[in-house]
Amino acid sequence: MKTKIAVVTGATGGMGMEIVADLAVDHTVYALGRNGEQLSTLAGISGVVAVESDIVKDVLGGGGVDKLKNLDRVDTLVHAAAVARNSTVEAGSVAEWRAHMDLNVIVPAELTRQLLPALRAASGHVVFINSGAGNGPHPGNTIYAASKHALRGLADAFRKEEANGGVRVTTVSPGPTDTPMLRGLMDADGKGGNDYDPAKYIEPVEVAKAIRFVIDAGDTTQITNVDVRPRVELADRTK
Prior knowledge:
seven-stranded parallel beta sheet; Rossmann fold
């Protein structure tokens, strides 16, 4: 019987599906997402509880996700839900800024707050999925990058706040990963279609492996930051 509990947001995304499948090996996983077809697939994995949720509405406006309210322990919380759309400061709208900040920053903060008693009870682990865009300038993708910079600040400050609370905190920052999100960004830039080569990018399962690495760390340590990069950086490719 699986005694550990995990909660994964963005579970129906390209990374989320792999993260849920990996955690389900030794956790009961509450997999939160909006894609009904993908949720049905996840529900077929032993130990997965598929939860259909508009997480911005539920967490920020609805008082929380109902199926999570009675959890008395959470061993692993993975914030994988995110939105990414190319935009500059000049072209960006207030609505776009709010959409990115709500899902990429405020939802992780508020859901963590709601689950904090259960995380403390389990001496649990919170994993924030960041991005290579969370470090340095990313012109043309400014709103998303700014939200990921904010998410890193949230994770680092929260780690300090919980230094004596028993909760471990990790930021995992994948580089370009072969997901529908990346394909959408590439299509918007006119670099998708036949020009898109999945072999150039990280496989989503590698992100799940990175999370497994950090949550399996020994009791006397925490892995605070992990960068997951392509085997050959895109800027270094000669072919």
